[in-house]
Specification:
By secondary structure, this protein is an alpha+beta fold. It folds into two domains: 106 residues; 98 residues, no CATH class. Helices cover 49% and strands 16% of the residues. The strands form three sheets. The protein has a four-stranded antiparallel sheet, with helices on one face. α1 packs parallel to α3. The radius of gyration is 20 Å and the shape is elongated. Bound molecules: zinc ion. The site of zinc ion has 8 residues, from loops.
Length: 241
């Protein structure tokens, strides 16, 4: 049983979120979902205590509700930030395991909200930076620092090309170098999970994007080759609490 006494939301109220959840148990309603999201998560990487208290009930709703899946994913995406709610988060362990299973089943059905569910799965796997930024690889850019010369390198993975470049304010992406996709048998960890999941579900653009994201890039300034994913992840790792 959830103890709501300290589980205040962003309006410093503790009674409104349980009311909203009860309303959603009776049926989906866009206005109620909007108010709930507003009370539980802030765009600036923050989640209110009520977000963790609401998670088990949200996960139960997530089997039949896209809004519940997205909101649960956003709450978990923010679990790495500062929240002072480790005890509330610890109580969510079963709900998080249930959510992982539910998302996996959902992804297998190749739903129209595939990317949102894929990102929620990355949040469950505690890959917070990928959960927050991963796109569908039609027009994705990542800014990374070259680990050898500290040049700011733009990585493009999309329909317009897959390259590393120096972004020039006037001339666009200059000194382009083609990316070097990872060999499939060289993938491990989260890259492997992303690849295997997308391949299983027939998401060709995602498969190809993941291979490039976890592959190598040549720095246009110094010519050295580095791992795109490693550099991006180390620059965006959440600060330790
Ligand atoms: Zn360099």
């Amino acid at each position: 049983m959830v103890n709501w006494a300290r589980a205040y939301d962003w309006f410093f109220e503790t009674d409104r979120v349980p009311e909203l959840l009860e309303r959603l148990e009776r049926g989906d309603d866009a206005g109620t979902w909007a108010e709930l999201a507003h009370r539980l998560v802030l765009e600036a990487d923050l989640v209110s205590p009520a977000g963790f208290a609401a998670l088990p009930q949200l996960v139960r709703l997530a089997a039949h509700s896209a809004e519940a899946r997205i909101l649960s994913g956003k709450i978990l995406e923010r679990a790495a930030g500062h929240h002072d709610c480790d005890d509330l988060l610890a109580q969510c362990a079963d709900a998080i395991a249930e959510f992982r299973e539910l998302l996996d089943q959902h992804l297998r059905s190749r739903p129209s909200d595939y990317l949102a569910a894929f990102r929620a799965l990355l949040a469950v796997e505690e890959q917070y930076h990928w959960a927050a930024v991963l796109g569908d690889f039609t027009d994705d850019f990542y800014a990374v620092g070259c680990p050898h010369c500290a040049a700011e390198v733009t990585i493009a993975i999309g329909d317009h090309g897959r390259y590393s470049a120096i972004r020039d304010w006037h001339q666009g992406d200059v000194n382009r170098r083609p990316l070097r996709p990872a060999p499939v048998d060289g993938l491990s960890g989260i890259g492997r999970l992303m690849y295997d999941t997308a391949l299983r579900d027939g998401k060709d653009a995602l498969v190809d994007g993941v291979l490039h994201l976890f592959g190598g890039a040549q720095c246009p300034s110094c010519g050295s080759v580095f791992s795109v994913a490693d550099e991006y992840a180390s620059a965006h790792r959440p600060a330790l609490r």
